[in-house]
Amino acid sequence: MIPNPLALIAEITHRCPLHCVYCSNPLQLAGTEAEISTEDWVRVFQQAHDLGILHLHLTGGEPLARADLKELIQAAHDAGLYTNLITSGMGLPEARLASLVDAGLDHIQLSFQDSRDEHANWIAGTKAHAHKVVLSEVIRRFPVAFTVNLVVHRQNLDHLEEMIAFAEQLKPDRLEIAHAQYYGWALKNRDTLMPSREQLENCLRIVESAQARLSGRMRIDCVVPDYYARYPKACMGGWGRRLLLIDPAGQALPCHAAGVIPGMSFDNVRQHSLEWIWRESPAFQRFRGEQWMPEPCRSCERRAEDFGGCRCQAFLLTGDASATDPVCTLAPTHHLVETARENGAPSEAKLSWSYRTNP
Amino acid sequence: MAPPADSSQPRFAAGCRWGTQGEERVVLFPEGMIRVQGTGQKILELCDGGRTVQEIVKALSATYSGGSPSRIREDVGSFLEALQQKRIVDY
């Protein structure tokens, strides 16, 4: 029996005013002309609710780039979904925010690139930071949950305490400290983003003490980046087990980066129901269960916990999507990750960023 | 944060609300959900931002005639404090 998915990630557009060097979007971005219509999304949200999904994460690109965002939120809310807007906040004047909240928006997750203006704009490839600070104050006046998201990496981890203090001033309910994950644009910039072991250990210590200090005021979520973990992450809670992602063109993917795996084809919500896609489509079946697993996963006692790690990462690093995720210390290809950690570049490599482009 | 006082007026924190999963009533919040049943559900349904903790205890005492008010007060306090820690309830 295939369990119902818990959440739907709707990548409603790839258009974005920012050019973050660690963007998780694919390198091949979908243009405006490829985006599915309002009616398509409205139908998908209803189907998502019928499939037992509770949470909808509206993301992009920048979801605010879609002029029909209010209609989308309204439809999702009416369908009974809990709506989360993952945003840079660019293109959100107070009146528009008011209309989104009025339509049923439950939660805003605002991304910050750094605590320092110049540094943040350097990562985003545009001047966005000051605007986000102002917007935070506006958000706090509305009855929505507010999360600040901070992506951390080699170039900002040395002032993590300052960044947490900065986030505290924005008064969110929750701070998410997300280590850059090496897919899409982040993989292109991996050497410049890769933290040192010392940075990582400091990070864990700092986060732990901040969690204790801020308990009950601001929740802090942070996970160990998988390149430094002993075992792989249960990517997306396991392939086709908990989450599904719809890209701007309506393709349903089991993982953000699944499009990189050769030989896969992804069914589209224009042609198929979400239920069929979840239960029947070949893409969602491909790495479900344990049949596909190689050793050492197949006989590993952790196989029902981490499901062999991330299929996309396995492909990106080894060329074989069925391989054990190389971040696992038991993987035969683990040396690839050890080498990547050692290749973390000193700061003079800053100039070699590949900024995310626009579709 | 301290446990709720008798005069506290508990309510859902911003971005937390009821939802349904099939026939079941659940509490939705950013990145998660909880199932609350029985007394927990009853307490939360009384948390409208207007009623005080004292009034909630009184209403519950009327429903659950078996429990002593001081025991109910204790349970309500620790239940709400735990949810406040999770940023699901404010008071």
The secondary-structure element order of chain B is: EEEEHHHE
Q: With helices defined by DSSP (H or I, 4 residues minimum), what is the helix count of chain B?
A: 3
Q: Average pLDDT across residues of chain A? A: 94
Query: End-to-end distance of chain A, in Å?
Result: 39 Å
Number of strands of chain A: 9
Number of DSSP-assigned strands of chain B: 5
Q: What's the helix count of chain A?
A: 14
Of all chain pairs, the largest interface belongs to: A-B, 22 and 20 residues
Mean pLDDT over the full residue set of chain B: 91
Q: Give me the secondary-structure category of chain B.
A: alpha+beta
How are strands sequenced across the largest beta sheet of chain A? 7-6-5-4-3-2-1-8-9
Q: Which consecutive residue ranges of chain B, at least 5 long each, have pLDDT under 50?
A: none
Q: Which shape of chain A, going by the Cα principal axes?
A: globular
Tell me what portion of residues of chain A adopts beta-strand conformation: 5-15%
State the secondary-structure class of chain A.
alpha/beta
Major beta sheet summary of chain A: 9 strands, mixed
Short structural description:
The complex is a heterodimer of chains A (about 350) and B (about 90). Chain A is of the alpha/beta class.
